[in-house]
Amino acid sequence: MTDKIMIEKTENFLEDIHRRNYEDPFLQRKCEWSSWIDPTSRATESLNGKWNFAPDWYDTCRRAAWYKERTKDPEGRPLPLDFDWENWEGIPVPSCWNLWKPELLYFEGAGVYTRTFRYRPLLEKRTQEAGTLELERVFLYFEGANYRTSVFLNGTHVGTHDGGSTPFSMEITDTLREENRVIVSVEAYRRPERVPMDNTDWFNYGGIYRDVYLLRLPSRFIQRWFLRLKGDGSFSTLLFDVEVDKGKEPIPLFVRLRIPLLGIDIPVEVQGGKGSASIPLRKEPELWAPEHPFLYPIEILLEEKGIGREQTRVWDRVEDRIGLREIRVEGREILLNGNPVFLKGVSLHEDHIKLGKTTNPEILRSTIRHLKELHGNYLRLAHYPHDSRFARTADEEGVLLWEEIPVYWAIDFANPVTYRDAENQLSELILRDRNRASVIIWSVGNENADTDARLSFMGRLSKKARELDGSRPVSAACLVNHVKLSIEDRLAEELDIIGLNEYYGWYDPDLTKLRQLLDNSNPSKPVVICEFGGDARAGQGGTVEDLFSEERQAWIYREQLSILKSFPYIKGLSPWILYDFRCPRRLNRYQEHFNRKGLIDSDRSTKKQAFAVLAEFYRSIS
Ligand code: GCB
């Protein structure tokens, strides 16, 4: 939050200690979705590895402008410094600082990272040989850092990003030197106006916890693209949109899209940096589905037209592998490639006992193995965007995904700053993952009270989701109206699928209310039960009456499933949750700072009894 208190500049005013609005200049250079570049298939140079790090409890790096490295006074005499880049300890990037040292477990302040790297242009030489001097453009790319990240290169602020789980990039072409010092201040305060706000049922991991890399691009490049089936049920037309960075001097450019397996090789006009095409297909494509996760290799070229075809100059080229499928809602059905689908799923947090929110390919694959052991086809990635490799892995493995932004509980719905942040996170997520066939639902939030401010806020988010991607249903995890005992939420009007969280058998022990609630409701749209469940400490025995026992949790699953299966308007389930996860709000002797609603312990291997109950249910309806 920008501190609005201003201090008058008197003759004894000292910038470093008296300035209150020190964040303002950083917030004027925000990295937002409109400048996001799709890094798919780019040759990147990783900046992962050891960075020097210090927790910066009072945010002094940004407050006192350490990054300016004022090491000497105007007469050249050394000044005392409060930082010591080279002697700070090495922290691995990516990682969550909370798991680096025991004393940082609950650290939620700012942390300062720094390292050096050398740079020499590569592309300059190549283009000089080709006859024209075109300098390469260089971007710093962050897959994710929680929450506000300010980046400084060689003493200059190059960008600030808000939001803990979406990627961002910033151009550093003009700030680069041969020897570079990069300083990254990440602050992870929980604040009431943020998305999420200060109260969540998960752990606030801080730091640069996803990959960081350098992207070298030509001076004109393909910024991002969107390829999908038209979605009219005919499987006969592809829609393609592309955005191009035209560079400083505009020249006639066009884009070429190639999909060799479909015999497609077509030019697409680019005007004002944008191009679109509607491409008729000669035959029905091989459709992507969980049981047949087929991906088409595609190639996109940015070309400058010369006089003859041989003079066409290729400025840029990207590749991707894209699944073609259609997801649609009709009445109370969810249709995948025209066929009704039931979402057999489970919810998932990114939290890992040793790595926190940092993940790796092995973790992603083993998560999907557990889903398949459950005979499931669907995961709800709660409550924030997960690592970008998740959707790619799900594309390959044939898993359907619900993706969500942390518009969670009672965020500050009336605050325009909060709205802008939420809309930006939603847009960054959609741009990042809209080419992934596995992603079938965008969720605009979770368990928010049905107020006017929330209706307008989340209604606008739904519209934004459709504006950026008209090819997927929009949903949100709503609460039941527990006074009328029915599915009733004004936001349902704005959604394609009604998500519903209910905890009968747990927070409300009276399971008979679930049947009443579902009987009382007559939704006009498909309903997905996004959450139900109960806590159980792995290994804790007891009767079905004993809270926190595995028996109680398994009983809740048995009872819930036997009721839910008799309501045909329910089109999917993602009970809460696959793995136990860290949660500082949970303080009883079974919980010990963990939410224990996992079907599997936080060790990600010990299964509780309820795992088999759900697996048997999904097997029986396969
Ligand atoms: C919910 C929330 C989820 C919590 C869960 C619980 O309804 O959506 O974030 O962790 O309940 O365990 O209470």
Question: What is the topology?
Answer:
Elements: H1 15-18, H2 24-27, E1 44-46, E2 49-56, H3 60-63, E3 89-93, E4 110-118, H4 123-129, E5 137-142, E6 145-146, E7 148-153, E8 156-162, E9 168-171, E10 179-187, E11 207-208, E12 212-217, E13 221-229, E14 237-245, E15 253-259, E16 264-269, E17 274-280, E18 296-304, E19 313-322, E20 327-330, E21 333-336, E22 339-340, E23 343-348, H5 361-373, E24 378-381, H6 388-397, E25 400-404, H7 416-433, E26 439-446, H8 452-468, E27 474-479, E28 497-501, H9 512-520, E29 527-531, H10 550-564, E30 570-573, E31 581-582, E32 594-595, H11 609-620
Parallel strand pairs: 23-24, 23-30, 24-25, 25-26, 26-27, 27-28, 28-29, 29-30
Antiparallel strand pairs: 1-12, 2-3, 2-4, 4-10, 5-9, 5-12, 6-11, 7-8, 7-10, 13-14, 14-17, 15-16, 15-18, 18-19, 20-21, 21-22, 31-32
Helix pairs in contact: 5-6, 7-8, 10-11
Bound molecules: (2S,3S,4S,5R)-3,4,5-trihydroxy-6-oxo-oxane-2-carboxylic acid.
The site of (2S,3S,4S,5R)-3,4,5-trihydroxy-6-oxo-oxane-2-carboxylic acid (GCB) has 9 residues, from loops.
How is this structure best described in words?
This protein has eleven helices and 32 strands. α5 packs across α6. The strands form eight sheets. An eight-stranded parallel barrel has the order 23-24-25-26-27-28-29-30. A six-stranded antiparallel β-sheet has the order 3-2-4-10-7-8. It is globular. The chain folds into three domains: 15-212, Galactose-binding domain-like (Jelly Rolls, Sandwich); 221-322, Immunoglobulins (Immunoglobulin-like), CATH 2.60.40; 342-620, TIM Barrel, CATH 3.20.20. The model has no long low-confidence stretch (mean pLDDT 95). The chain has 622 residues and is of the alpha+beta class. The site of (2S,3S,4S,5R)-3,4,5-trihydroxy-6-oxo-oxane-2-carboxylic acid has 9 residues, from loops.
